[in-house]
Amino acid sequence: MAGAEEDEVAPSAPHPVDPQQPMGQGPAAKRSRSEHHHGDGDAPSFKMEDLPVDVQAVIMSLLPLKMAVRTSIVSKNWRMLWTFRCNLSFKGPRYLCENDTKIQQAKCIETVNCVIHQHSQIGINKFSIRCGLFEEDSVHLGRWIRFAASSKAKIIHLDLRFKDVFEEVNHLHLEALLDAQGSSFVRSLFLGGVVIKPHSAICGFTILRRLVLQSVTISGDFTGFLANCAALEDLEMIECSGLTNLIIPQQLDKLQHLLIDGMEVEMVEFYAADLSHFEYKGQVVPIVHHGCSKLEKATIMFSGKKGLAKAFTAVPSILPVKILNVQSVALSKYSQLQKLPTRPDGMFMHLRHMTCRIIVHSRPQEANYDIEVLQLAYCLDAAPQLETLQLNVIVVLFIKKY
């Protein structure tokens, strides 16, 4: 089936014929006789359709979608078994620059609509669509969301981005993911390339454990929405826009992993007491972590001036970590390390493993990265239990052409 993201499965080999058996005594003959008569010593014939319908559906669900549809033509009794599949994944074009993008996208949309129209909507576990979607095709998005909500899908993955174009956006109403009773069965939600308007009145995502937003425009009360997702354990936000300050409310007391990547925010503030893994990649901004920190692993990749210095001194909540990854991606000809204080304000008493990546931009006559690297040793005094230090230095030289 075009557009379905499934693997092919080779059919099983036919049963071999015993050369010692006389003609008429082979398996085919035995099956023929058993269909009309069963002796006392004969085993009854077995047919898949003799199984309960729900068992047949489970067996059929183990096949890839393409194979399940093909198998349905073997018997009229199997014709609709594929409609009980629990995992539906579709993949379409992701780059607008390709010549046949519009054709392939139309095929993907047609396939999705055809499948969800015939599906039983029973027992859906995962509903995934990875296909760039034009704004004028947003009517299909509404149909897909209604299907996912009514079928009580546990995992919803909607990545509608064109990776080479950012103008195409689709408005997605979070309320549409709720059922008629205003609740949701979604445990994992991925949204990409959409516009959402969250607010505190959306209270149905009570069992949501993982939320990933990529290239999503957010307008509204995002903090109020998160406060109603008390079961959330993993929150990842990548290149999202629309927020000035990112505040993670104290209701997320089960949050264990927080990733913020490429967000143009002015401040990050969170109250997640059980947070064990924190990742931040972007401009230098104040990062405030309230409460008792249980952080064990942190990744801080500040870009811009004084990025490396800030990674060690401006995020005191990372002091308890055991694993630390830091990176500076924009060093000027003047060493940032020369501007570091004598030592950090606190001690990395539990730090065991550290990875430091330094990117040096310099002209050949100004290259002093060897001195910069040596000055990094100042932080080792603040980590008395350090066991592993991995240092990666990338030097970018600008050579003037005459």
UniProtKB/TrEMBL annotation:
Region (Disordered): 1-47
SUPFAM superfamilies named in the record: F-box domain, RNI-like
At1g61320/AtMIF1 LRR domain span: 115-393
Pfam families, sorted: F-box, LRR_At1g61320_AtMIF1
Highest taxon, organism lineage: Eukaryota
Domain F-box: 49-83
InterPro entries (alphabetical): At1g61320/At1g61330-like (IPR053772), F-box-like_dom_sf (IPR036047), F-box_dom (IPR001810), LRR_At1g61320_AtMIF1 (IPR055357), LRR_dom_sf (IPR032675)
UniProt-listed PANTHER family: OS02G0105600 PROTEIN, OS06G0716467 PROTEIN
Protein's name according to its UniProt entry: F-box domain-containing protein
Organism: Triticum turgidum subsp. durum (Durum wheat)
